[in-house]
Design goal:
The complex is a heterodimer. By secondary structure, chain A is of the alpha+beta class. Chain A is 22% helix and 22% strand. The two termini of chain A are 42 Å apart. Mean pLDDT of chain A is 87; it is low at 1-52. The radius of gyration of chain B is 32 Å and the shape is elongated. In chain B, a hairpin with a 3-residue loop joins strand 3 and strand 4. In chain B, helix 6 (116-125) packs across helix 11 and helix 9 (190-197) crosses helix 10 (199-206). The two termini of chain B are 34 Å apart. Mean pLDDT of chain B is 83; it is low at 1-31. Chain B is built from twelve helices and four strands. Classes of the chains: A alpha+beta, B alpha+beta. At the A-B interface, helix 1, helix 3, helix 7, helix 10 and strand 22 of A face helix 1, helix 2, helix 3, helix 4 and helix 5 of B.
Chain lengths: 649, 287
């Protein structure tokens, strides 16, 4: 159906409009929705006598996603510092804003494009204190020596003062009143973190959130959470971050939630937490039996978890957390960036029965089951990706990957060095995943708007590329909506966005979804869009199923909702290149659940798959002129995962 | 230069070993309790209580305070025993932590508050960094490369010829395909356009006139005809409008300079001798 635009006269305008509408060769076979022939009247409307009433005026729904990282460490984190990280929070925010910085390894580093937001999340344990030399400390300024240093520093002779001070240190001749740990003149790293975020925050242009990581690591099992503030430093500085070491802190998430409740109540702040790397928790991230007391999850746990943890970080440098081939044997894309050898420090090897409690998809499924028991779904969370880099550099593009730690910044041997090595297992450097970023559908780029969007779970995870993904669910979407000129408006009008809820199905109706994706403007084309459905059957057993809803290149979607033809590959590994001669730049469709049972709880989320591209290991091999180990993966299929839309009878 | 030096671990060790020693000397003197005696001073107890209160926004109970003191004593016992056993020596984590503290000292010494004069001078010498971005409002007609795989070139020519005769105000978007991010973009900066459409698009549109349909511009998505209705020129803002940004950049520049100077002058205090590895030395001797 390939209309050529024929020669045009004013009178043939109607014909032109119709032709242009018909001239669409859409990505997927089932997408050839016809929005109807425009008649003369419609065409005249398109070229009205006076300027048109703008349908965009006054709109207040999110019109574009903001990309960021909710999880980045700097030299303020003890382990990052030990690995040689020299960049602090200020440098991290500068880099995220698109400035060039010198990485800890001495190399110049810059992002292809700035990020829209960043949360610096250094570990709360061991955050520590740093000497505050001057800062107008009256006690110190009262001494002649202190006064002299102060004057030198303010007049730009800081280095001279430093020499003098250090010499005095060595001789034990410090003036009385010189700060010692525990006194206010020692700057806490937390205060400095807050200050860096407040300084970097530029509403409308770049959002710098205040946050930290609560790094619960009981027996080497990863139960880490990042905590993020909606507010500015005035509120965040009223507390010190919660730590995991008793007696002050605790490794039990229930205690973190207590601390969060206290923090909101006593400081008037609004905060949220998000966990990550269930793949390294050895069965403890999404438990049915709580690891701390051996009891079944109760309603209190479920309520708190769902209240305080609206999001989960589904993909990052230490592996992908969507699902695992053992859990999803019929999922061809499940075997992706697996880190499944053991727990975080590889002191305990993985057993297959742990996997169910580690991955996002199975957590969503068990959450439905637990909701039926408890009345509350503990695992009703949205998805983001983030880096968890310990370099101060949120750099996870395949051709611009700065690694997990400063010692794994680009070098000829970073891929072949062990990343973790114990007597139980080894994870090699090449297994690091160049992933991911958080995409948030917020109405504007401010702390408040992005935080609120996170709370309502209107987010998706990407493994690095900045593709645009839309996902709306409702009862009345019809095929023509896929050709609507304003997909977002029709989406918000007729349905709920990702992260939302559908309740009580209208009689005889199945849920329908408006699903769309646009490739990264400088990235690879898209292979397909899938809807992943999970539900609890009549027998009480959880189920999952994948539907290909839009596929590129005119491939067929079979009657079972799957397209098993591969998109192919254009990757030239040796040269680390690919071409966009396969796949599609954009896809949009309306999909209706063909197997809906209104009596059963269900969730739906979207997975967008890119065409194969070179993995960072291929870029490294090419740049450094080295040979990668034969077992190293050299290509990747980047992807995005949206927050689900839940159906509750 | 400094970056290259910093990559030389040997040099780091030489330069910093002495500082570490100095720092520990100082700390050691301060807490010079009699060996075999740990005094938890009243101010230390108060500090532990304060730390608790800062985390929990309430003072610790008697039992909680006892727990904190016990934990402090445990730290101190292990710390002292460990140091006696020399476990702090050649520990890369301790070295790096101490070095980090030194770098913090340097940071604290990059002048606390810049004067207006300093800021104005910085702004004047870096005008490009603080230039406010243009804000462009435009509509587009989008021809999708995906939907029009084989016809995009000829369709594009047709649209161009229609637009040449069309009223500028016309809502011509229906000539093209829907675009997921919309047809109208209000007050968008070039850097945002780069992140939405790519750099080429952003550069092309920056050079276009307002008030008429122009294009097409190619992007990774297809072709775009654009009608720019408004362009607000950014220009060079006065200091008052960009003070926080100028202050941040000024401070950052100062910080890096001071750190570099500090290291350079500290390093000058050392004679640095790098010995050749033994194998090479033997080889050299035999020649």
């Amino acid at each position: 159906m390939m209309f050529r635009l024929s020669s045009i006269s004013g009178a043939a305008l109607a014909g032109l409009c119709a032709a242009s509408v018909f001239a669409t060769t859409v990505a997927a076979e089932d997408l050839t929705t016809d929005i109807g022939t425009l008649d003369k009247e419609a065409a005249e409307k398109a070229f009205p006598a006076k300027p048109p009433y703008s349908p965009y005026a006054g709109r207040n729904f999110p019109t574009r996603p903001y990309f960021g990282d909710t999880h980045l460490h700097t030299s303020y984190s003890m382990d990052a510092g030990a690995f040689g990280a020299r960049l602090g929070p200020k440098d991290a925010y500068r880099f995220a804003k698109g400035e060039e910085v010198i990485a800890s390894s001495g190399q110049r580093a810059k992002l292809s494009r700035p990020l829209d937001f960043l949360v610096v999340t250094d570990h709360s344990d061991g955050m520590g204190f740093f000497p505050q030399l001057i800062g107008g400390d009256p006690g110190l300024l009262a001494t002649p020596q202190g006064r002299k240093w102060y004057d030198e520093i303010t007049s730009g002779k800081g280095a001279q003062a430093a020499i003098d001070i250090i010499t005095s240190f060595g001789k034990g001749q410090m003036p009385k009143g010189f700060p010692t740990p525990g006194t206010p003149a020692y700057r806490s790293a937390w205060r400095e973190t807050i200050k860096a975020a407040d300084e970097a925050n530029e509403p409308g242009r770049f959002t710098a959130f205040i946050g930290y990581e609560w790094t619960s690591n009981a027996a080497g099992n990863n139960l880490h959470r990042n905590v993020i503030w909606r507010d500015n430093g005035a509120k965040a500085s009223l507390v010190e971050p919660f730590t995991t070491q008793p007696p002050l802190g605790s490794p039990n998430p229930r205690d973190l939630w207590k601390w969060m409740a206290m923090c909101e109540e006593k400081t008037g702040a609004e905060i949220l937490a998000l966990a990550h790397n269930g793949n390294l928790s050895n069965g403890r991230m999404f438990p049915i039996i709580e690891s701390f007391n051996g009891k079944r999850i109760d309603r209190e746990y479920a309520e708190n978890r769902t209240r305080w943890e609206p999001l989960y970080e589904a993909t990052q440098i230490k592996g992908d957390g969507e699902t695992h081939p053992f859990l999803s044997p019929n999922d061809e894309f499940a075997n992706f960036e697996r880190w499944d050898k053991g727990n975080l420090d590889l002191t305990e090897v993985k057993k297959p029965e742990m996997l169910e409690f580690e991955y996002v998809r199975s957590a969503f499924k068990n959450g439905l089951k637990m909701e039926a028991e408890l009345g509350v779904n503990p695992y009703k969370f949205g998805l983001v990706g983030s880096t968890d880099a310990h370099t101060g550099l949120a750099a996870v593009e395949e051709d611009n990957f700065f690694g997990k730690t400063s010692s794994s910044e680009p070098s000829a041997d970073r891929a072949t060095h062990p990343f973790v090595k114990t007597d139980k297992a080894v994870i090699m450097g090449w297994e690091q995943t160049a992933s991911g970023y958080a995409a948030v559908w917020a109405a504007e780029n401010t702390r408040e708007a992005i935080f609120d969007a996170m709370k309502r779970r209107e987010t998706y995870a990407t493994t690095g590329p900045r593709m645009v993904v839309r996902f709306f669910g409702g009862w009345d979407f019809e095929a023509a909506d896929a050709n609507n000129r304003m997909p977002a408006r029709i989406g918000y009008t007729k349905g709920v966005p990702m992260g939302g809820d559908l309740n009580s199905a209208p009689n005889g109706k199945s849920p329908s979804f408006l699903v769309a994706a646009l490739k990264d403007p400088i990235g690879a084309n898209l292979d397909r869009i899938q809807v992943i459905k999970g539900w609890v059957g009549k027998d009480g057993q959880t189920q999952e199923r994948i539907y290909d809803v839009a596929v590129s290149g005119g491939r067929k979607i079979d009657a079972d909702g799957r397209s098993r033809t591969s998109v192919g590959s254009t990757v030239d590994v040796a040269n680390a290149t690919w071409t966009n001669t396969i796949g599609a730049g954009e896809m949009i469709t309306v999909w209706k659940d063909p197997d809906f049972d209104p009596a059963l709880r269900a969730f739906y989320y979207v997975r967008v798959i890119e065409i194969p591209t070179p993995r960072w290991t291929a870029y490294d091999a090419k740049y450094f002129g080295i040979k990668m180990p034969t077992e190293a993966t050299m290509t990747t299929t980047e992807r995005a995962y949206t927050s689900p839309i839940w159906y509750t009878p | 230069m400094i970056a290259r030096l910093l990559r030389e671990p040997l040099l780091q060790f030489f330069a910093l070993g002495a500082m570490l020693f100095a720092l520990y000397g100082f700390v050691g003197k301060r807490s010079a309790d009699a060996p075999g005696k740990i005094v938890v001073s009243a101010s230390r107890v108060a500090n532990l209580g304060d730390g608790f209160a800062r985390t929990w926004r309430r003072p610790p109970s008697e039992q909680e305070l006892q727990g904190l003191i016990e934990d402090y004593v445990r730290d101190e016992v292990f710390y002292r025993e460990g140091r006696t056993a020399g476990l702090d020596r050649d520990d890369v984590i301790i070295r790096r932590r101490v070095r980090q503290k030194m770098e913090f000292l340097a940071e604290a010494m990059s002048a606390p508050e810049p004067t207006d004069q300093q800021l104005a001078a910085y702004l004047a010498s870096n005008p490009e960094r603080f230039r406010a971005e243009d804000q462009i409002t435009f509509r587009q007609i989008f021809l999708s490369a995906t939907r029009r795989a084989n016809t995009i070139e000829s369709d594009s020519k047709q649209v161009a010829s229609v637009l040449a005769r069309a009223d500028g105000a016309a809502d011509a978007a229906v000539l093209g395909d829907p675009f997921l991010l919309g047809e109208e973009f209000r007050g968008v900066s070039p850097s945002k356009l780069t992140s939405i459409f790519g750099e080429y698009f952003s550069k092309r549109i920056a050079a276009m006139e307002t008030g008429r349909w122009q294009g097409p511009i190619s992007s990774g998505f297809g072709q775009h005809f654009v009608f720019i209705s408004e362009r607000i020129s950014g220009g060079s803002p006065p200091l008052d409008a960009v003070r926080p940004a100028v202050r941040r950049e000024w401070t950052n520049t100062r910080r890096l300079e001071t750190e570099q100077k500090l290291y350079a002058s500290l390093r000058e205090r050392y004679e640095i001798v790098v010995e050749a590895p033994r194998a090479n030395a033997a080889e050299a001797a035999s020649r």
